[in-house]
Design goal:
By secondary structure, the chain is mainly alpha-helical. 52% of the residues lie in helices and 7% in strands. The longest helix has 54 residues. It is rod-shaped. The termini are far apart.
């Protein structure tokens, strides 16, 4: 026979355990969602700065295919050293890898 004190202690411990698990799961899911949204926003803003800077610096006209001939190869990609005066390129973190492509998927600029 279990005493009433032991039963109440087990009941309260069980309620506390369930409450802590639910609170921890709620806190974890909220934090994970907010962190993911912050990362997405950071990536989006960084890409917008890069696009704006690349459009200001990119003076190459798009390659136009000539009738009767094979389309010419796109020019070789430019190094980011050519963009060194732009603040967006100077602010790149080491962990960020950026490649700039035109509408046709041709590589315009790459850090490597």
């Amino acid at each position: 026979m279990i005493s009433i004190r032991l039963r109440l202690s087990l009941l309260y411990s069980g309620i506390l355990t369930v409450t802590l698990i639910l609170f921890g799961l709620a806190l974890y899911s909220i934090q994970a969602r907010d962190t993911l949204n912050a990362l997405k926003q950071d990536i989006f803003q960084g890409s917008q700065r890069m696009v704006d800077a690349a459009l200001r610096m990119n003076s190459m006209p798009p390659a136009q295919p000539v009738q009767g001939r094979e389309p010419s190869k796109p020019p070789p990609p430019r190094s980011f050293d050519e963009f060194s005066s732009e603040q967006a390129f100077q602010d790149l973190r080491e962990r960020e890898i950026v490649r700039i492509m035109d509408a046709n998927g041709n590589l315009i600029a790459s850090p490597f």
